């Protein structure tokens, strides 16, 4: 029978022997290393090698930190502030490009209450912080690398200055990509004043960079509703500056000028509108006989609808949802309201990740397309209790109502991919019985009395530009289309465009597409004279009639 005490004593003795042996090996290795190094020229060794301390100095160094009580175990409040400032400054120095995305400034003062001046002495702007201009310039330079077609257009037309004399007032998302467009318009001779079409989509550093470069920008991320309209008014109502062109995204700028400054609106040479919502407003004005200027519908141009609406949303829907919620889509039940180009892009992306996707539609043609693409078309009320995510992209209002939100299950996500914030009835959620809890930027828990939580993203506003970014290349296609539409309207002879809404000429759509083919090293086949005659076409285009509908590729 074994003696436990004796066995324990033997184990301790064996462990002691192993420790002693390992120390002998370490000393022997150290001696060998020193001996070998002594035969070498120490100048041949890198500082990393020569600075390696022996075992004992390491022990002494550790003791040094303990002896010098430079940092107490529990720092004082002042000490914590000092350390925090030190870390913050270090992070800004080391990761400046990342710091530009996170405005770490503790200054919560509204930009409207600040007096800021750029390096040229101008104060005709209102942005979050003009000192972020350097960060914004880097963002713009990155965007330029993937917007080669727009840069190519800038270089080709810069000497002709086709927009000389144009005074363009713009209301779009202010991102690095739109900054490339704005600076292209300036290079082509235009004067620009700009504001944001969405209170959450502005990149503050980009707005600062544009302001530093002489563009009058009035926008910052997180504006209030009052700030939003104030910024639009500052762009339009300024002494000694009369706009003659409008570039709008959503129709808010056009609506503001039409209602508040009718005399200024009548002197506009043309409007370029890029969103479903804005185009709908223009057609309403035209139908009522109240549209007194020509307008270009860019949203329904092939290069906008079939590329920006489809491919951009196919990628950015996932980006926005992942950044805000970290949700895994495999097996999740998702309903996409609307199967237009935006809806098609969203459905394709979600299906590829293994989500179970339902579609709601009012249009039988779009509904049939959804069915043929493998999606089940339902009414929202049929699946409202079981779905995990609702995505709206219709351009309509009250697509998701309070009654439906009440019936959603705990933990559901609700978001919008349409331009306007009217699709989800967010106003009905601001009632005393519901609690709003901010989780992170643009992410809110709406909590019901029974404890149920629904995750609302960007307060029902456009998800991708509010909560993430969008692919630069596809925005180059839209931006080039917008620039050409402005050039066309501004330079068109009198009488070509009447007081109505027009589509971009097919030839211009094809030109925009051709500018982007070089990126893919794509080579177009050319028609022979005989082939062109057989088809009844000009061998240089346009290659399709205006009624041709380009199919969606999913």
TrEMBL record:
Compositional bias (Low complexity): 84-103
Domain S-adenosyl-L-homocysteine hydrolase NAD binding residues, every copy: 309-470
Biological process according to GO: one-carbon metabolic process; S-adenosylmethionine cycle
Keywords attached to this entry: Coiled coil, NAD, One-carbon metabolism
Cofactors named for this entry: NAD(+)
Entry keyword annotation includes Signal: no
Family statement drawn from the similarity comment of this UniProt entry: Belongs to the adenosylhomocysteinase family.
Designated name of the protein: S-adenosyl-L-homocysteine hydrolase NAD binding domain-containing protein
Organism per entry: Anabas testudineus
